[in-house]
Each structure stands twice: as structure tokens, then as C-alpha cells.
Design brief:
By secondary structure, this protein is an alpha+beta fold. It is built from 6 helices and 6 strands, in the order αααββββαββαα. The longest helix is centred in the last third of the chain and has 21 residues.
């Protein structure tokens, strides 16, 4: 069958444009602390807002990013991805797992990070970013953006997780390396994709073709 394209919806396109503009204005973690409510004094100057020590390697990040910091800090192997999601506006992490092996060394749980997002365009950009990493062969496995059923939550939750390949046993240390790769360019590369998307939306709104 031939799949027809949707007719342009200018109201939706304008809303997407506004959301992309907000994304492009989002400061990096060297400008604003991404961890919610963090007020840990800077080791250099003592300021509770200084960002000179902000990174996923911050020893306080696993607790500062968790809603239950004492009993359930973010697991070390997934910290980089959770941290990078906090740098993206609209993306609010809600659950994560660094992946685990059983006693025989076989993978028992996949590494993954779940997050809420109310902006469809943000979710689409994350999916496009993961696809570009796969096409560029920068990951050991393809990683996908999936919609997940998260209890009775009103908001939609998505999961960044690896896709299992038939006849290929996933190896945890490679998947955790993928986690670091995905986290490393998340905000910067999504902004590049956002600029491209802005041009596409402008063409829709002005009736010009690209």
C-alpha cells in the first residue's frame, strides 16, 4: 500500500517551533546546574549555584538526581545517561537501571533510563539522535526510544533502551559503554537536530519546499 503523508497542521507546527526555540535556549551544564534542587557548595568557591564542578562524574550526582537519595541513589553505570537527560528541557527522568548479570555472568536486566516528556518534538528528537548513532555505528547495539506503561502516571513516559539482536548475546560492559556514548552528545546533538527541524517547520509554515 502507499502511505499518504499527513496534511500540514500549522497550529501544531507553531507549537513545535516554540518548543524547539525553548530547547535551543537551554543552557549547558556549565551555565546552570542540571540536578534538580542541587545546592551542594562548590569545592572551589563555596557557592551553592556555581557550575564549575557539574558533570556526571560529580560524586553527589547519584544522590542529587534521585527522589530517594539515601536508599536508592542512581546506579553508577546509568548515571551519565540520567544526568544528560536532566540537561534537556522537558525530559524528566523517573526510573533507571544500570543493567545486571546473573551469577553465571549472563545479562539479567538491560540498562535503560525512563523519563517523562510532554513535548512530542523532544521525544522525536531523542529517537532521531539514537537512530543517527546507530547509522554511524557508534553503538554496540541499536538503542530505541520506547513508550512505557508507568503505573498510574498521567504523563507519558519513554524509555531509552537497547534492542536485543537475535543470535547476538548482549554484553553488559559494551552496553554501559553505549550509555556513555549516548550521554556524551545528547544535548549538543539534539540541538543540532532541532535547528534542522526548525528549518523544516519554517518551510511548512511559509509554504516553501526544501
Amino acid at each position: 500500500m502507499r502511505i499518504e503523508r499527513l496534511e500540514p497542521d500549522h497550529a501544531f507546527s507553531r507549537q513545535s517551533q516554540r518548543e524547539l526555540e525553548a530547547l535551543l535556549r537551554q543552557p549547558a551544564d556549565n551555565k546552570v546546574r542540571p540536578c534538580p534542587g542541587c545546592s551542594v557548595p562548590c569545592p572551589c568557591c563555596g557557592s551553592p549555584t556555581c557550575t564549575c564542578n557539574c558533570s556526571s562524574a560529580c560524586p553527589y550526582a547519584p544522590e542529587e538526581m534521585s527522589s530517594d537519595p539515601h536508599d536508592h541513589p542512581i546506579e553508577p553505570g546509568i548515571v551519565p545517561l540520567v544526568y544528560s537527560l536532566y540537561t534537556v528541557p522537558e525530559c524528566r527522568p523517573c526510573w533507571s537501571c544500570e543493567g545486571h548479570e546473573d551469577s553465571s555472568g549472563r545479562l539479567r536486566k538491560l540498562p535503560r533510563a525512563w523519563f517523562y516528556v510532554r513535548s512530542l518534538v523532544h521525544a522525536d528528537l531523542v529517537a532521531e539522535y539514537l537512530a543517527e548513532l546507530r547509522i554511524a555505528r557508534k553503538l554496540s547495539h541499536p538503542w530505541l526510544l520506547c513508550v512505557v506503561n508507568w503505573g498510574d502516571a498521567v504523563d507519558t513516559a519513554f524509555s531509552i533502551e537497547p534492542k536485543l539482536i537475535p543470535d547476538q548475546e548482549p554484553i553488559l560492559h559494551r552496553l554501559r559503554r553505549d550509555v556513555r556514548t549516548i550521554a556524551g552528545g545528547l544535548l549538543a546533538d539534539i540541538k543540532l537536530l532541532a535547528r534542522r527541524r526548525m528549518a523544516d517547520l519554517e518551510a511548512v509554515l511559509t509554504g516553501t519546499s526544501r
